[in-house]
Amino acid sequence: MNRLQNIKTPFFLRLHTHRIYLFFVLVLMCFLQSSNTVSNPSEKVHKVAVVHPAIDKKNPIVCYLVERQKANGNKEFYLDVDSVNCGENVCKVVTVRMFWDEIGRYTHYELQDGEGLEKKEGAPFTSEDYKKLEWVLQNKNSELAHVFKDNLVTTDFIEHGAVDVDAVSGATSTVSPSETVEGAVWTCYTLWHWANGEIESQIKNITRKQFSEDDLIAEFLKNKDSDYKKFAIESFLFLGLKDTATVTEVVQQAVFSEYAVFKRAMDYIETIPAKHYYASVTYLFAKGDYKKRVACLNSVAKTNKGENTAYYNQLSKQIATFSYQEVEMFLSNLKQHQFSSDLLIEQLVNLLEADNFLIARRAYWFLLDEEENLHAKQKKKLKKFKKQYKDRL
What residues does each domain of the chain span? Predict the structure, then answer.
């Protein structure tokens, strides 16, 4: 028998060999598991930094926002967050998955199976509480937007039932009871700022970078949803797109869309060069209803573009069709910009015979300041108006 066969392997060597064997088995199992696990191809993770008032009103926190494709082809975003950042540190914290659409509008939230939200003294949310919470989160004009966490609750005595009471006995909310779920002001505050806070702008930035200018026009600006239209116009502003084709599309949407879209379009139009700005505003004024026409006049009053003679003369030709409020705004604007022209004076002289005395009198006051620029016949008409209505001037 070979002598080597009679030599036994020392115990510590056999133990070491066994450990090495187990190590390689574990490595192999991890490798096989990872090779069989495929990440969801419909999801993409975005690392974003946002300020959340319930956590820190100044310093941003890092979040991992997930983008995914829905079955209907639309995109949505979600983020897993703590249900509450409690000022008294006694609230039950669960994970809430918040959802937004592709232009950053909050849509809904989900809880993990078996999890539920709690109110004061550990009381579970009722079905009515969950409905109220959803309403709170959908209310973009909530008082919660303007309250700092340090001022959210107070321990000062207030008559029982007058305000919302939070999770800590004696702590009362400074927000109207209608704005929160009773007994869950911290939860409402935390989740509202997730739903309606800086995540919205982060999502918008992600989405707009995924579309070309043509796609933004076709899929967003021409969408029936007004929020999509506004998103497209905001994107043109953000990306600095001011070419003729884009301006034309925005102006057309401003004509036919509701006032909220029109106002966003005006924000965009006010950034384009003077020549295109005045052409756009003139067109919108001619096509618009009273509210849009007033917005056009306000825009010109606050936007110093220069090169405005052609624009003012064009509007002067239409002044006989203006309401009194439009005449007042237009002439005040002209006075502010120290504008006068022969065409304007001639149109205002004609307005001295307007059926609406308020309009005629407003024209008179403007012409009186311009009297030195009137020719003899015009001065005669001005003098006649003064004599006829001296008791009403």
Answer: 3-36, 43-199, 216-298, 308-393
